[in-house]
Amino acid sequence: RNFMAAIFVRASACVPAGTRLLHRGAPLLFRINTSLNPEDKGSATFTVTNPSTGKVLAHVANMDTPEMEKVITAAHDALPAWRARTAKERAALLRKWAALVTENADYLSHLITAENGKPLAEARGEVAYGNSFISFFAEEALRVYGETIPAASPNQRIVVLRQPVGVAACITPWNFPLAMITRKVAPALAAGCTTVIKPAEDTPLSAQAMVELAVQAGIPRAALGLVTCDRPKVAGAGKLLATHPLVRKVSFTGSTGVGKHLLSLAAGTVKRVSMELGGNAPFIVFDDADLDAAVAGAIVSKFRNSGQTCVCVNRIFVHERVHDAFLEKFVAAVSKLVVGCGSQPDTHLGPLINDNAVKKVETLLADAVQQGAKVLHGGARHALGRTFFQATVVADVTPAMKIDKEEIFGPVACVSTFKSDAEVVSRANATSAGLMGYFYTKDLARAWRVAEALEYGMVGVNTGLASSEVAPFGGIKESGLGREGSHHGINEYLDVKYVLMDLGK
User: Fold this and answer.
1) Which of 14, 229, 310, 341 is catalytic?
2) Full-prediction pTM beyond 0.90?
3) Catalytic site residue 310?
4) pLDDT tens digits along 45-74
């Protein structure tokens, strides 16, 4: 169970010579336990591997249902004491957690790269991004305000309280194994909730490290319960968290299909839910756009994390008057992207998370090519083997192709043309997804019209990156419910209570 040192040693096979992952006196990342009781050694284990090398990083507790139930019960038992702490006390502990994350940022970054495969520069960005939510919600803990409402009677007073929901189950994905935890857990703890975290089976190590740092900061271990299991047990774990009567809130980030299933399960006990689900993001380049800026925005939005983000560009629409010029610049930029091990300093694209992810990309590409799409760059597995895939550009994509309808979740950019604003807005909205949309234009009036017309929870205008701890992240339609980040994020973990006081005559 004390495996952090071994993780870094094994990860170093992908690190340039001379890189020091550990040093004498390295800060406190060595005691990581998935069990509530550090002495409990009853769990079987499953292996976590480095997707770049296939080498085993660690053996993690493969918990069964009774063990998970103990974690839920412990979180419920810890709730009264945590909820009773003042907002100032909770905020102080969150700030200590954030400070420890900053202190351990280099170690956490290497850990993310080891278990997820993303380039180290992106991993460092994720640590900073994830930590921003801890710092932000430490401050939001102090701003959970109630209300007073004028009553209909002079002898009555109306007060509105905001109180913690209770135990919150936080089910997180593998593509941002650290940031998706803090985006859920930080507001929950700030609100006075306790949590049970279920990280993805591909990337549980970042979760374990973050829980350990939170405990070192003084947050009760039971307030950050952690359940881990292998893929065959995932469905059972999700069902337990979504149906357990002691869990009052479920926050999930992942696929739309799984989200719908969890919603149906949570309905049985009428739980509060937040769902951040799949996307099918359009990226529109109008004829007045700054093409260099649009190319740069498309590159960062499409190929970040090798295309494995829910807000990645899925469909690029370029006005017919600038299509050829944009495509020339875009293909040239894509051709410069380096595929490789995430720990290598020149790498832009790491591996896909597993072979199933590669097979999905290959299937979508094959269907598009069969229907007339043209591969302008890439289009196949990379010579590095394993789950590395070439940065790919496909032109002449049509709405009939699966690649236009489904979330790709891989490094494949699909380009098509349009003639008018009305046409492209209609095509962009022709999807059940509604998470993120992007467009580039210099026309201010057009910017307002299109931003309001796009049926998405978030819209980036002249930018390919829009996520921030101070802004509400979330989608509409089948892309989800609720918001993460901003002051809206903490409200997802608060119940509203109306209190009527009658003062008598």
Assistant:
1) 310
2) yes
3) yes
4) 999 999 999 999 999 999 999 999 999 999
